[in-house]
Amino acid sequence: MLPGGVPVGLSFVEDGLGWEDATTQRVRVPDGARVYEIDGPDAWAELNRRYPLQVTAARRQVWYLTTGRAGTWVLPNWAQVQRDFDAVHLSVAGYLATAGVAIPVDDERSTVLAGWDPDATHWLCEVTHDAATRQEWRHPRDADSWELSRSE
Questions:
Q1: Which helix (H) or strand (E) holds 37?
Q2: pLDDT means over runs of 10, the chain (152 residues)
Q3: Integer CA distances (angstroms), 74 to 16, 68, 117, 119, in order
Q4: Contact, 75 vs 53, CB < 8 A?
Q5: What is the spatial distance between Cα 80 and Cα 51, in angstroms, rounded to a whole number?
Q6: Of the residues 17, 71, 102, 134, which has the fewest C-beta atoms closer than 10 A?
């Protein structure tokens, strides 16, 4: 939470689309959930090393323009990751140290952490939401931050 009780996920957005309304709800984490933590470039590289999916054809141009690196690119194969983990969490520190740069996976392949928000968790298993924690937020275009408009 940020000052004023604003959820981090509302303010820390990599490529925001100018949203003015949002609904938040807490997730009930399954007992024994296996969560892979991305706390920096080494953890992101290891995830890609263990579960590689070649994405060179789809990412070559934009990642070359972003990083200046030409070569083979990989991302995690989420279907394979799901066999060993229930979720992948990107810490704020991990985001700041990893996002948008070419991360070597091995001598031939690299990866880029892109499209993630700081402190994001991608669930690879079914989760339920706690309806009692539902909150509706507004961010008027002329305001500096999110405002709570309704809480259950």
A1: strand 35-38
A2: 67 66 84 96 98 97 94 98 98 95 97 93 91 83 77 70
A3: 25, 16, 19, 22
A4: yes
A5: 6
A6: 17
The answer to whether residues 86 and 33 touch, using CB atoms and an 8 Å cutoff, is yes
Which residue bears the tokens 């706390």?
Answer: 39
The pTM is what? 0.81
Strand partners, 120: 90
Cβ(36)–Cβ(88) under 8 Å? Answer: yes
Kindly state the helix (H) or strand (E) to which residue 67 belongs, with its residue range. helix 56-67
Helices (H) and strands (E) in the chain, counts: 5, 10
> Which of 118, 129, 119, 121 has its CA nearest to residue 26?
129
The span from the CA of 75 to the CA of 95, in Å, is 16
Amino acid at 143: A
- Are the beta carbons of 22 and 136 closer than 8 angstroms? yes
DSSP codes, 70-102? -SEEEEE-HHHHHHH-SEEEE-HHHHHHHBTS-
Task: Put residue 98 in one of left, alpha, beta given phi > 0 → left and psi -120 to 50 → alpha.
Answer: alpha
